[in-house]
Amino acid sequence: MGGVLYFIPIPKTDVNIVMKFSQFGNKFTKDSGITRLMNDLNQGLRTPGAIMLGGGNPAHIPEMDDYFQQILTDMTLSGQLNETLCNYDGPQGKNTLINALAQELREKLGWEIQPQNIALTNGSQSAFFYLFNLLAGRTEDGSIKRVLFPLAPEYIGYSDSGLDEGLFVANKPTIELLPNGQFKYHVDFDHLNISEDINLICVSRPTNPTGNVITDEELLRLDGLAQQHNIPLLIDNAYGVPFPGIIFSEATPLWNPNIILCMSLSKLGLPGSRCGIIIANEKIINAVSNMNGIISLAPGGVGPAIALEMIRRDDLFRLSQNVIQPFYKKRVNRVIEIIRRHMSEDRCLIHKPEGAIFLWLWFKNLPITTEVLYQRLKKRKVLMVPGHFFFPGLEHDWPHAHQCMRINYIPDEEKIEEGIRILSEEIEIAHREAEY
Ligand SMILES: Cc1ncc(COP(=O)(O)O)c(C=O)c1O
Predict the structure, then answer these.
(1) What is the predicted pLDDT for the residue at 12?
(2) Where is the Aminotransferase class I/classII large domain (predicted)?
């Protein structure tokens, strides 16, 4: 007792502190378009009455929510949750899940997978950061290697993940016009240039933002090209089969030692568990494990523990097929009906919905860009994502990119209907303005 208390004066504000960031710091802290957009979307979430059709959160499917609640209760009572929370896993990730998943994939899909072919990450987003920078960027001999997206538009989340600038190259698609005001993108193999600097081909299947699922034929062709050029093919299977299974067209899952398959527990309904799963050859898995060790010691264990329990109960594939897939399929069809109630095929074409949680709308003759449309909609508290953000790696600006818009079809139908009504009004206003 009797000690003297000293107070260290705290500066009133820290905004004027002079601090120099590294090149890495500058690159990863700059205000990119996507940061601005994400802030908008986040703000939208907190604005009363806003209609949020922009984000990528999966649906809360009541049956899945109840299931997760029950599994967590059981895991708490059995001590499994405690066991997971109170221990580190190894840098490759929870080995009990890795062993069980390898066996599941061998038995159910016939893939030649061993535990040394699987590594876990904190969400698949961080897996892309690892893999892109592992395989692309400046090499020992000073040359630059790049990632090829064979089918733009592609996932916005890839855009800023390269340590080096100019890491990505994208190939424009061909567009097939379909009945009922729908269309579908295809890989334009005639213009697909796998130049010397390409060291990885990457495609999301189903694709965020479009809901496209590249066909088995296209996938096999890409696989063949990758093998021919001695480079891996990365398939981002965040929405795909066998889990979470948000696919409405025929699609055969594919893996071989030249394929890096990235999966995730997020769209199963567990985005907060931050669990990504990489299935690849041993060299890639060792590299990812080392990176995990350096960057995060070990990936988190709660998501993997839940997935393990789901496999033990034989529920992982079953719920994907019987609960998750039908929920999204029904929802997407309802939302297409809503769109068609408000907008004709002349005004709005819809990418064939083959999977994922988005609809991709093409306003072919729109006199304004979808960026301007986005700003006008924002003023009316409706948030959607303008198309041009989804073309990472595309060298030249493409008018088509400014005619498209992505909406998330998960919110309540009344909200979607109101959002679509306002969207169609704004489109009519833009057309009227152009006539005068
Ligand atoms: C195509 C695609 N890949 C990967 C991810 C990343 O998901 P996560 O990091 O939650 O596994 C997302 C998220 O929306 C996505 O849409």
Answers:
(1) 61
(2) 82-421
